[in-house]
Automatic annotation (TrEMBL):
Its EC number is 3.2.1.40. Residues 1-48 form the Alpha-L-rhamnosidase six-hairpin glycosidase domain. This is alpha-L-rhamnosidase. Gene3D superfamilies: 1.50.10.10, Maltose phosphorylase, domain 3. It comes from uncultured Arthrobacter sp. Residues 50-122 form the Alpha-L-rhamnosidase C-terminal domain.
Length: 144
């Protein structure tokens, strides 16, 4: 929180780019707008949580979570211009379950890990599930 207490409105390359007295840190790597660290949040929302805009302004959304590789559950909440979107999923004993909560008036295309596709046109909570083989298994790797 140090950068915020120093007035930051962007992500700094290093936490102490500005010294407590307001001077710029004389060390290297003192960018005050370093998006690379923000890429992690983008990955969590779009890949792990699976919430992506399907049209500009989130007029519709694509929900396509990518479970596996040690991640067994996720709960992602996004404040869109149309209301709160919550995608919560769990992978347990070869079953994938997605609980999706959408605001009224928002359309979502849902793609489950097994390839099933659904379109949701009403708000509220929807539940989806599918069988899912072990995402760590070598059968998911193609070698050419």
């Amino acid at each position: 929180m140090y950068p915020v207490t120093m007035g930051a409105t962007t992500i700094w390359e290093r936490w102490d780019s500005m010294l407590p007295n307001g001077d710029i840190n004389p060390g290297e790597m003192t960018s005050f707008n370093h998006y690379a660290l923000g890429g992690v949040a983008d990955w969590v929302y779009k890949v792990v949580g699976g919430i992506r805009p399907d049209c500009p302004g989130y007029e519709s959304v694509l929900i396509k979570p990518v479970p596996g590789r040690g991640i067994e559950w996720a709960r992602t909440r996004l404040e869109s211009p149309h209301g709160t979107i919550v995608a919560q999923w769990r992978l347990s004993h070869g079953r994938f379950r997605l609980d999706l909560d959408l605001p009224q008036g928002l359309t979502a295309r849902v793609v489950l890990p097994d390839g099933q596709k659904h379109v949701v046109t009403r708000g509220g909570t929807q539940v989806f599930s599918c069988e899912m083989r072990d995402p760590q298994s070598p059968s998911n790797v193609a070698v050419e």
